[in-house]
Amino acid sequence: MTMLLGQALRVGRHELRNRVVSPPMERNYGTTDGRVTDRYVAYLRARAAGGAALVFTEATYVRADGRGRVRQLGAHGDHVIDGMRVLADAVHAEGALLGVELNHAGRVGDPAVCGFQPVAPSPVPFRGRRPRELATAEIGELVDAFAAAARRCADAGVDVLEIHAAHGYLIHQFLSPRTNRRADRYGDPALFLTEVLRSVRRSAPRATVFLRLSAFEGVPDGLDADATLAVTARLPGELVDALDISAGCYEAGEWMVPPGEIDRGVLAPYAARFRQFGKPVGVAGRITTGDTAEAILRSGAADLVAVGRAQHADPRWTATTLAGAHPRPCIGCNQGCIDSLHTQQPIWCVANPGTGREHLAAAPPVPSRRVLVVGAGVAGLEAARSAALAGHAVSLWEAEPMIGGAFRLAAALASKPEFARLLDWYAAELVRLRVDLRLSTRADATTVARLAPDIVVAAAGATGVRPPIPGADHPRVRDLDDWLRHPSTGERVIVWGADRAGLAVADAAATAGYRTTVISAGAELAPEAGPREKALMVRRLTGDPHVEIRLGTTLEAVEEHRLLLGHGGGRQWTEMPGTVVVCQGGTPRHLDIGTGPWQVVDVREWPHPVRWPQP
């Protein structure tokens, strides 16, 4: 059967070569004054070359006070036009259309980033910051800013303009009763968006116009699905060529970028309700596989699928899927692709180390060598794959009977249901690339010398750290990896450490029905993890009456049925029978293979520092 996913579709003035859209994703790849960079061009070019029909920039700010990220792309001044034209030419050269999403952050803007006090329809605080309420006359100036930004994009050769009326940004703030409490005419939730649509149409009459909406906000006092449909019905539909359906707002971020434990295609039933407006409909929301995308299209819920994180993980997702093969999977971790933005860093990808590096020159070819990779965790798997792709003869040794290392343990957790897909993909890649995989094989001086490699890549992982406290060697004190392989049979688990791994283990223990206590010297659960990665786990743990969380607390000693805890400068013995699971980070394992003619390279440095022997 021919995939509907590969069929062309005409929307507005343009024909899309298939039904796959690379949707707006904030990337932080621009300059500090909003210009396009070589990195940005290379990133979007790769997704266009990979087969997407329409590739979007990120939420692109129309005025300086609407910027939300340090290196966010802007359409706020004529200085951005030349770079945007280069971007359009690059995307067009690969057969795709370029879209720009026009946006203003409104109340969710950060003065530390944009240098302005945030503005909003009403002074409803956000994260402790109170925005300034816009005067009536100022709202007209913002309408003009959207129009001017649309004109700049049109001058640069942009094909599609998307008006961002979702995710709790400025336009959405006018739509929602929780953020629009005005008494003037702009108390009408549809008025500001209507004026923006009219102004954009006048400024860019040849552009195709998409309208992005949150089907619901996801918070109790926000717009639900019925209310969103009602306000959409009041908009001038003749000014819109397509509806792009997402969900959520900053206070319900799990709907904006759903983590892996949310069902694939979760928003399709909501998108189907927007069919009533007679426009082509696109939908986002955990569309990570070709089967999911095809099922959505064949159900009639949507005409287009917004495949964001999956194309972030594999720029050739579209072409690979349409060819009936399996692209490198998105694992739904929300670490590099979204949570890095909260620290104002450029986005990256846990599943693909090449993402965000498309602009870097390829390494020069080198003579084929025999490469031994020791350790088949994800780092070792990637090292073996990259070496094989470069034409080297590759052996991959793993001491355990399965690939994956600690990542495989994480993949068994209910909160990480997509992780196993990455291991399955790597296993298939090893077969395709004819990597010599040897499981249950330890590397030592004798075995390595027998293979006689030119390069040894050390990817043996890390061992857990057990702080030296009295009783740390007690039988009921167990390392994280050991407990995940063989969970305890008691009713209580004490998780010692609340980093990313500790949080996941505590969540797994509580979900399995253990009475769970979390002990951490820090003031926050998993401080190194971003809000989107940990939101659902934190919510479950803090809402579970059988979970006790003790922050700012140290574990000082362990005895048979009690623990010595330190808190606030004091120490106290506490009766706490159960298994203590140590989650205190790790140290790299030492690879003891003696010396030889081979060069040893740490996997974290592979392949750049390798001193390849010359023929």
Automatic annotation (TrEMBL):
Gene Ontology MF term list: FMN binding; iron-sulfur cluster binding; metal ion binding; oxidoreductase activity
Lineage: Bacteria, Bacillati, Actinomycetota, Actinomycetes, Micromonosporales
Family from the record: In the N-terminal section; belongs to the NADH:flavin oxidoreductase/NADH oxidase family.
Domain NADH:flavin oxidoreductase/NADH oxidase N-terminal: 9-320
Protein name, as recorded: NADH:flavin oxidoreductase
Residue ranges of domain FAD/NAD(P)-binding in the record: 370-589
PANTHER family: 2,4-DIENOYL-COA REDUCTASE (PTHR42917), 2,4-DIENOYL-COA REDUCTASE [(2E)-ENOYL-COA-PRODUCING] (PTHR42917:SF2)
Gene3D superfamilies in the record: Aldolase class I, FAD/NAD(P)-binding domain, NAD(P)-binding Rossmann-like Domain
CDD domains, alphabetized: OYE_like_FMN_family
Names of required cofactors: FMN; [4Fe-4S] cluster
Keyword field: Flavoprotein, FMN, Iron, Iron-sulfur, Metal-binding, Oxidoreductase
Protein species of origin: Actinoplanes awajinensis subsp. mycoplanecinus
A Pfam family: Oxidored_FMN
